[in-house]
Amino acid sequence: MSPQMPRHIGIIMDGNGRWAQVRGMMRIRGHEAGVDSVRAVTEECARLKIEQLTLYAFSAENWKRPGLEIELLMQLLKRFLTGERDTLMNNDVRLTSVGRIDGLPKAVRRELELTQTLTANNRGTNLCLALNYGGRLEIVDAVRKLAAEVKEGKLTPDQIDEAAIAARLYQPKMPEPDLVIRTGGEMRISNFLLWQISYSELYVTDTLWPEFRAEHLHRAIVDFQRRERRYGGLVDRIQSKAGAG
What we know:
Undecaprenyl pyrophosphate synthetase, 6 strands, alpha/beta, 9 helices
């Protein structure tokens, strides 16, 4: 039997600023270099037929950064959305997004919507960008929707369960990530897809994001394939041994 591939991979892209600083560059140069990593990993996920790749591109907390850095990041995001369209189309990749998209600059939203429309009929990997995203905010927004429905009499409190909350997340049809990769060596999940990654396998690498390429992705996938996913229970092999005794 072939090793199981992850259906959905999420990546916390960390280390752009550190990569630039050790080279005596402005932090934004690290983010620019990170675009090459985004392209390489997206193309490889498309080749491997990974159903979804979600990249933590801009968190809701990132607005706390210096104004100039935010402005440059938004310009870079806009350039990515326009400049990578051929790459997305050539690899049959569909672009989607998750987060409080209305909070992004109008020019960025326009290019995001256009790229999503242009790639909507692609049937390969779904590249989902987490933009102006926070896991806690997503849960708060879902709870607000539920509260409004209860107030309107469309729902009773007793009807609120895990399925009800999941159905009101930003992308309710998103498959839960099987594998979450964090680059840059930090042992944190940084408010990334908190609801969805409850049972995800975590993989942390010291490799900084601008240096992350297909071979690093392969190492993470191989590590994932060596693990036994129990979801709080016991794998069949262990249960069989217990029963045999």
